[in-house]
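User: Structure with NAP, tokens only please.
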Amino acid sequence: MQIKGSTEIYGIIGNPVAHSLSPIMHNRAFESLGLDKVYVAFPATNAEKALAGFRALGVRGLSVTIPYKETVLGYIDSIDPVAEKIGAVNTLVFKEDNKIHGLNTDWIGANRALAERLELQGKRILLLGAGGSAKAIGFGLLEAGARVILASRTESKVRALAETLQCEWLHLADIETVQADALVNATPVGMSFVENASLVPLESLHNFPVVMDIVYAPLETRLLRESKSAGCEIINGLSMLLYQGVAQFEAWTGQDAPVEEMRAALMQEITK
Ligand code: NAP
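Assistant:
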């Protein structure tokens, strides 16, 4: 890629951001389509000042990650209705008039990943976790016409999120009582540092024909390994990561994203 005077700048703001896979995915997308665009990681220390600077410098689009997904809401000009319900954005589009529009593609990524295996309308989905990802995924499932059952370990948190989503909830310890069309793990359990852990008892897995884990390091978590052995269809965390990026690319460029190039870039990096 050659950076020229005309090259448009995109990026990610968060702190930390050095570990982010988004630069690899988006730069591969830009390169593969020959677009005069580059994507950079910005370890921002102040969201308000960073956005004022990006606006003044003519940056075209940003991903937003922890800890700014909620903070930036105070400094943007408009917000997508679903992102407004979620109360967090992960994508900013800088428009021609220099106004900033915020949206949330995490739920779009999760829905697209699930939709490769099941039609969501009218389905019952057991969602594990009550944090930021569970909230975005929960609202997204409701958007798609699915019914959500929320399960998490801290009763006050699961109860509060269930109230926000207007959905059923239960304690994590009771998930063996549930049958659903799919189960989604939206907790960090299964990540490298708790690699050999799973929140779902082996004997309950037959209750869920489709199992998705949003953890992507490792790609095959214990939950997915055991679900595969139990005969469930499995979806790994790379799919949500990919499709939230695909939706970002489409929001920034108005073009179809080179999905397979982006998938390959992520795969190469994750399996290094
Ligand atoms: P978060 O806001 O910190 O929420 C984490 C949730 O998991 C909380 O409800 C927490 O319960 C629960 N939890 C944590 N450790 C647990 C344990 N040992 N046992 C049972 N429950 C536990 O995190 P998040 O932002 O939602 O992210 C969750 C995971 O999703 C992370 O691993 C992140 O990397 C991954 N993620 C993946 C993608 C993707 O595109 N694939 C996108 C976003 C996030 P308490 O409330 O009781 O603490």
